[in-house]
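Moderator note: this is an archived Q&A kept for reference. The question asked for a predicted structure of one protein chain; the sequence and the answer are reproduced below.
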Amino acid sequence: MTLDMLTQLVARILDYPLGWLLKMPRDLMIVLIALATSLMMNLARKWTTNQELLHRCDNDQKRLKVLAKTAKAAKDKLALQRNRATMAMIQLMQFKAEMRSMMFSIVPVALLATWAFVRVPYVAPAVNQPLVVKAYYPLSCVDRLTHLLPVAGLEVPDPIQIIHPDPTGPNALATWTITATIPLPHADLCFRYGEETVHHPCAIGGAIYEPPVVEHPGSTILVTETVLKQPKVFGILPAVPVNPLKWTLPWSKPAGAEPLPTGGQMPDDATSSFSIDSWLVAYIVLAFIFVPLSRSVLKVY
């Protein structure tokens, strides 16, 4: 089982307890996920550590800071050394408590984060809304024909397309615009090139979408993609454009295909930039805000 298959399995299992979040506005969903993350971290700390001891440590630190200022004013070096030694001992106890709580919180937080990574970045395609579908090929396939097989409930105006050079990458590309007339929770898009056929799962008309990018190792059809919408977060943070070839393209020579322009190596521009989804930025910022707030409300030390 690959890592991608494992993350998809985890997401499908967690859809049962967390699926209701997908019916909420995207911004509110991100806020609730960040809040849940902070609560799990703080509740794990509250239940797995000696809170009475940590409370005393917190009070002792406050007192030691006052004594340190007094010792500095009096230029008492011995008192400052004793103060620092005591402070270091307290910080060590706090660090051990932090590690203990992290051991218990890391699993639920990681599961929640995995579900969010799979379900949050895109908006599921809707019925009666155009959906752009792409397939990527080696440059040797330019000017040849490729075919998207018809599916019941799915309108494909031009199922046969001519493969053209991809203006944004070193490979070739074919593009279709499809429209679902009925909800299709388990549609199977079949792409055909010559005698080769690859499949791309697609869900339309629901709250859950299938992975937008699917690799096809060993096939001349290298990658297929459903171009899903990425919403702005809070109407401010822009969506991050995704180039599936930059990060997921298997740069190996398909059977019967010519060598890639770069000799089978990742091109320079594929690693020249790094981007992070806007929803992830919002989630991290909100989690950092909610952790100390919820710790104060729950009286966690």
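Archived answer notes: Residues 3-121+282-297 form one domain.
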